[in-house]
């Protein structure tokens, strides 16, 4: 899997180097990983002679996000949540594009219909089309997990489980 990823990344670099216009636009989210990846990409392109315009976006449209969340919650409550002894998990397939599975796991993690003694895991198919690039076939799945709230360490003078 790692070898395949490296080959795909090398192919992407090769294609980028062929661009006649040395200008790019980078769109990223305004959260920690979005800001960091935006800066990393900006610096990499600048070091290779590109003019970079960077756009920091908020997460997907709240109305679109709420509709996707509501539809998937109904599905999970109906029958989509699977259980193992320590993990409860679900797969949204490609229903959340462009929203990411981490956002959904975060919104879902403390719902009363989940088992608070199990980890929560969500899977999502990684899209093969990146806007502005030719298709890159990854055939991958992203995993996001959350720790049950009862397992978190409490803050304050006495740190304890509970």
Order of helices and strands: HEHEHEEHEE
Strand content: 15-25%
Radius of gyration: 19 Å
The domain count comes to: 2
What would you call the structural class? Answer: alpha/beta
Task: Note down, in words, how this protein is organized.
The protein is an alpha/beta fold and 162 residues long. It has 2 domains: 1-58, no CATH class; 60-154, no CATH class. It is built from 4 helices and 6 strands. It has helices at residues 2-17, 32-47, 62-80, 101-108; strands spanning 23-29, 51-57, 82-83, 87-91, 119-125, 141-146. Strands 3-4-5-6 form a 4-stranded mixed β-sheet. The protein has a two-stranded parallel sheet with strand order 1-2. It is elongated. It starts with a helix and ends in a 16-residue tail after the last strand.
What labels would you give this structure?
162 residues, 4 helices, disordered C terminus
In short:
The protein is of the alpha/beta class. It has helices at 2-17, 32-47, 62-80, 101-108; strands at 23-29, 51-57, 82-83, 87-91, 119-125, 141-146.
List the helices and strands and how they pair.
Layout: H1 2-17, E1 23-29, H2 32-47, E2 51-57, H3 62-80, E3 82-83, E4 87-91, H4 101-108, E5 119-125, E6 141-146
Parallel strand pairs: 1-2, 4-5
Antiparallel strand pairs: 3-4, 5-6
């Amino acid at each position: 899997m790692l070898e395949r990823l490296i080959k795909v990344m090398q192919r992407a670099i090769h294609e980028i180097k062929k661009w006649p216009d040395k200008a790019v636009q980078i769109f990223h989210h305004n959260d920690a990983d979005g800001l960091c990846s935006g800066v990393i990409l900006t610096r990499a392109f600048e070091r290779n002679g590109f003019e970079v315009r960077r756009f920091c976006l908020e997460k997907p449209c709240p109305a679109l996000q709420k509709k996707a969340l509501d539809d998937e919650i109904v599905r999970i409550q109906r029958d989509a949540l699977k259980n193992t002894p320590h993990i409860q998990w679900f797969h949204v397939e490609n229903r959340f594009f462009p929203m990411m599975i981490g956002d959904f796991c975060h919104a879902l993690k403390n719902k009363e219909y989940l088992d608070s003694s199990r980890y929560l895991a969500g899977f999502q198919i990684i899209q093969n089309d990146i806007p502005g690039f030719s298709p890159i076939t990854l055939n991958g799945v992203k995993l996001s997990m959350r720790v049950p709230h009862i397992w978190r360490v409490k803050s304050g003078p006495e740190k304890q489980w509970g």
